[in-house]
Amino acid sequence: MKFNKVQIADFSFSNAEPFVLIAGLNVLESEDIAKEVIEECLSVCKDLNVPFIFKASFDKANRSSIDSYRGPGLEKGLDTLSTLKSKYGIPILSDVHSEEQVKLASEVLDIIQIPAFLCRQTDLLSRIAKTGLPINIKKGQFLSPDEVGNIVKKILSFKNENILLCERGTLFGYKNLVVDMLGLAYLKNYGFPVVFDVTHSLQQPGNLGNKTGGRREYALDLAKSAMALGLAGLFVELHPDPDKAKCDGPCALPLSLLRDFVNQITKVDNIVKSLPPLKIS
Asked: N or C end of the chain: which has fewer CB within 10 A?
């Protein structure tokens, strides 16, 4: 199968090439925490020769509770991301929740992310696609892999082929997500780079009443399982102290474990992509 590439800075996403790490904070907290995360990511990725993209949300519009922290907001958040991008010379990914956010976001971001709950919103998809920027589509927790084809067709209709397909788990009854490994293989059939979001796949939605629970202790097991399929990227959210994180702490990987975590994923990725293809029909 021929796999499309999506170029970012001086590297590319491809299911047939070494994986790209998308890592960072669920939501922007303080600039100091963001710098701490970025500096550790840069150190680890430089030593292990892994391309790195920093991820952080400037606004989380879909929090469980009205009392939950949403982030610094559009203008302040993008200003912080722009400062970090300039200081560290790194590509930046963040998500948008409305058409009105797209123009300002596109002036700062290298990849625009479509939240899973909004992945079928045609007007939002149109506005983002027309920026020409790469788009990371979070597959809705309610969608089957074959339904993703309709989303791909929408974006292609707006003349943008810079598509990343991101798996983040599927609802399995109430308050639980599972990852369909065959579903990941199915997503690869579209020919576009596939990214696995391990930390969101560990969520237990609404499990803590007014916020989401999680199972971060299984992050490495799940990541290795998915990356054994030969994917273009791994998406992981980090925090220096996950128990104090302002969003999705139960899912976040402790920053101190990042080096060992990426080291193991790199070994899995290298083995899988060194194997010859075997077509079974």
From this structure: C
Ranges of residues in the chain with a pLDDT under 70 are 1-2, 61-69, 71, 205-214
Task: Give yes or no: 79 in active site.
Answer: no
Q: What is the pLDDT of residue 205?
A: 67
Which pLDDT score, from 0 to 100, does residue 206 have? 63
Catalytic residue at 32?
no
Cα(97)–Cα(63) distance, integer angstroms: 12
Which of 55, 59, 60, 136 does the annotation list as catalytic?
60
pLDDT at site 63? 57
Provide the pLDDT for residue 80. Answer: 94
CA dihedral of residues 197, 199, 205, 208 (deg, nearest 10): -170
CA pair distance 247, 10, nearest whole angstrom: 31
Task: Please tell me the predicted confidence (pLDDT) of residue 216.
Answer: 79
Q: Catalytic residue, from 59, 197, 248, 269: name it.
A: 248
Residue with the two structure tokens 């696995």: 196
Query: What percent of the chain shows pLDDT beyond 90?
Result: 70
State both tokens at 177. Answer: 């997500």
What SS3 class is residue 85? helix
Whole-structure pTM value: 0.93
Asked whether 184 and 231 are in contact (CB, 8 A), the reply is yes
Sign for the CA dihedral angle at 87, 90, 96, 101 comes to: positive
Query: CB–CB of 41/239 below 8 Å?
Result: no
Is 248 catalytic? The answer is yes
> Domains of the chain (ranges plus CATH)?
6-274 (3.20.20.70)
CA gap 260, 47 in Å, rounded: 12
